[in-house]
């Protein structure tokens, strides 16, 4: 438990040596907030919304949504809940604590395996499955006492929004309504907590990566999320009650490369703790669900660029890839290209 950054970082004056990133993994130069990343009003004219989403998915693999159906109150309640959770005395969180990322509900620190890292990320994460609720909720924290009730209701609302956004994407690609249903049944959450850091130029919150799933919905209370586009890191404006939507590898693959996934990371600040509440939707990673480019999007003028594969195997390969030492060659997607 002593490992959790939130248990020892309060008031530290300098970054401990095992959190100082080598220069090439530090935040370096970046564009503070990129105003070109679209903020899309989901209550707008449907065909315009579809077009805005498709353009954003082609250009950035990321956009923000407002008027998305999840109430402001529910989103604010989640921020308060997780502030309380991360401020609980450590003894109250022992039930979910784990020394490394694993299956089930876990509160862990840094990356996937603290013990094997040469340098650690300045982050604590609570992660767990969300769907079906009855299966997962019993493993969730029981403090604060309202956790299971509030998070259960939030997960259901985010799920509705998720299917809605996936249908808008399907429509924009010329695919049928519900096209993504089978590959979006699994839902999980990661709540990342980044305490203030005495020198954000030396340490890192979460390193650059692309989510392996289909699509991700993130709410945040502070600046810190960045996306890499054409080799340049750019900041995402933290808009209260908006969701940042980013595409994972599976949407890039199923769209046969028509849409792109977003490489992103989380940087730190020295003033305020930052918490991101992240929902992932995708295929069930325990099942051999077949993923491949949509037949409708493959033609002689647009040949198939990704192979067909089983999702459980993809996830195993992805985890192997991101456990490799940095710098790594290529990306986790490379072996799936035709
Ligand atoms: C993630 C992620 C970014 C953030 O959990 O996959 O990219 O801002 N988080 O916490
Ligand atoms: Ni991510």
Structure overview:
By secondary structure, the protein is of the alpha+beta class. The chain has one domain (29-290): B-lactam Antibiotic, Isopenicillin N Synthase, Chain (Jelly Rolls). 25% of the residues lie in helices and 20% in strands. It has helices spanning 5-8, 46-59, 72-87, 133-136, 147-173, 249-254, 311-323; strands spanning 39-41, 62-66, 106-109, 124-129, 186-194, 206-209, 215-220, 225-229, 232-235, 243-247, 263-266, 274-282, 290-291, 309-310. It has an eight-stranded mixed sheet. The protein is globular. The mean pLDDT is 96. N-oxalylglycine is lined by residues 190, 192, 206, 211, 220, 224-225, 264, 266, 276, 278.
Sequence-ordered SSE layout with sheet pairings:
Elements: H1 5-8, E1 39-41, H2 46-59, E2 62-66, H3 72-87, E3 106-109, E4 124-129, H4 133-136, H5 147-173, E5 186-194, E6 206-209, E7 215-220, E8 225-229, E9 232-235, E10 243-247, H6 249-254, E11 263-266, E12 274-282, E13 290-291, E14 309-310, H7 311-323
Parallel strand pairs: 1-2
Antiparallel strand pairs: 2-10, 3-4, 4-5, 5-12, 6-11, 7-10, 7-12, 8-9, 8-11, 13-14
What key phrases describe this protein's structure?
338 residues, alpha+beta, Jelly Rolls, eight-stranded mixed sheet, four-stranded antiparallel sheet, 7 helices, 14 strands, 25% helix, binds N-oxalylglycine, binds nickel (II) ion
Brief overview, please?
By secondary structure, the chain is of the alpha+beta class. The protein is 25% helix and 20% strand.
């Amino acid at each position: 438990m002593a490992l959790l950054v939130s248990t020892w970082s309060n008031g530290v004056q300098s970054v401990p040596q095992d959190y100082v990133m080598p220069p090439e993994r530090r935040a370096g130069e970046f564009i503070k907030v990129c105003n070109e990343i679209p903020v899309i009003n989901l209550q707008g004219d449907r065909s315009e919304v579809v077009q805005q989403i498709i353009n954003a998915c082609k250009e950035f693999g990321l956009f923000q949504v407002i008027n998305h159906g999840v109430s402001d109150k529910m989103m604010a309640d989640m921020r308060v809940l997780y502030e309380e959770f991360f401020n609980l005395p450590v003894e109250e969180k022992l039930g979910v604590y784990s020394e490394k990322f694993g299956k089930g509900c876990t509160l862990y620190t840094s990356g996937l395996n603290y013990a094997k890292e040469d340098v650690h990320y300045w982050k604590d994460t609570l992660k767990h499955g969300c769907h079906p609720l009855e299966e997962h909720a019993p493993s969730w924290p029981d403090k604060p006492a309202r956790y299971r009730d509030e998070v259960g209701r939030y997960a259901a609302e985010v799920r509705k929004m998720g299917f809605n956004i996936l249908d808008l994407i399907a429509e924009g690609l010329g695919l049928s309504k519900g096209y993504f249903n089978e590959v979006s049944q699994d839902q999980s959450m990661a709540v990342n907590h980044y305490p203030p850091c005495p020198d954000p130029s030396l340490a890192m919150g979460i390193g650059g990566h692309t989510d392996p799933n289909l699509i991700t919905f993130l709410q945040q209370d502070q600046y810190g999320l960045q996306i890499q586009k054409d080799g340049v890191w750019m900041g995402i404006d933290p808009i209260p009650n908006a969701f940042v939507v980013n595409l994972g590898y599976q949407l890039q693959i199923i769209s046969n490369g028509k849409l792109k996934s977003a490489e992103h990371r989380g940087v730190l600040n020295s003033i305020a703790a930052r918490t991101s509440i992240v929902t992932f939707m995708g295929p069930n990673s325990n099942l051999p669900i077949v993923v491949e480019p949509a037949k409708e999007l493959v033609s002689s003028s647009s040949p198939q660029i990704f192979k067909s594969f089983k999702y459980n195997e993809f996830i195993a390969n992805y985890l192997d890839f991101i456990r490799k030492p940095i710098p790594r060659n290529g990306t986790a997607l490379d072996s799936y290209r035709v």
